[in-house]
Write a structure and sequence with these properties.
Elements: H1 2-27, H2 31-63, E1 67-68, H3 72-89, E2 93-99, E3 103-105, E4 108-120, H4 121-131, E5 139-147, E6 154-166, H5 175-185
Parallel strand pairs: 1-6
Antiparallel strand pairs: 2-4, 3-4, 4-6, 5-6
Length: 187
């Protein structure tokens, strides 16, 4: 009889263990389920990341021709030369070209300039439109136009323009650092 009680106890114990395992399986989240959920989440994040990188690359490709990659010292004179030539070609009088304080904007650096022009209204508008071509690498920021007299279409205009420079692309090696490294290597 004692073996019968032992076997009954073993069977009852096994039943309790099986019942506990079933309850645990249905109630508790298994590590595999958590891993699977994390894999799905990671996959979604990778897809979103891929879309964002694609979007950034398209924007860089579209805006690349409009961004200066030269040193900051050459942007002002180059922009002034291009805009002076454009004004002359349209028969406008360029009164002034004033640089403003450069602004840091992440990977880009903004160079603002204020231009004062005189000429006919249609030509001033054409100047603003032509200034924004990818070849000029200038963006018109604002335009203020005032009539010089009521009898003609002659106007006086103040146009704010911006030139953007890519700080990362245009980083040139520092000549002083190169010279210092050369002197350290020489005996």
């Amino acid at each position: 009889m004692s073996t019968m009680k032992t076997w009954n106890g073993v069977i009852a114990g096994a039943a309790i263990v099986m019942l506990g395992t079933c309850i645990y399986h249905f109630i508790a989240e298994t590590p595999m389920a958590r891993i699977q959920a994390k894999k799905v989440e990671l996959s979604k994040l990778q897809q979103e990341n891929s879309k964002l990188f694609s979007s950034v690359s398209k924007l860089k490709k579209a805006n690349g021709p409009r961004i200066w990659a030269t040193s900051s010292e050459t942007i002002g004179p180059s922009a002034m030369g291009k805009l002076t030539e454009l004004a002359r070609g349209l028969g406008l009088t360029l009164l002034s070209f004033r640089p403003q304080k450069p602004e840091d904007s992440g990977e880009l650096e903004k160079f603002r300039y204020v231009i004062s022009l005189e000429g006919s209204f249609p030509r001033v508008i054409e100047f603003a439109r032509k200034a924004e071509t990818p070849e000029n690498r200038i963006a018109v920021d604002r335009i203020q136009i005032a009539s010089k007299d009521g009898a003609t279409d002659s106007v006086s205009a103040t146009i704010g323009v911006v030139a953007y420079r890519d700080k990362i692309q245009s980083k040139a090696p520092d000549p002083k650092a190169a010279l210092a490294s050369d002197t350290k290597t020489k005996p």
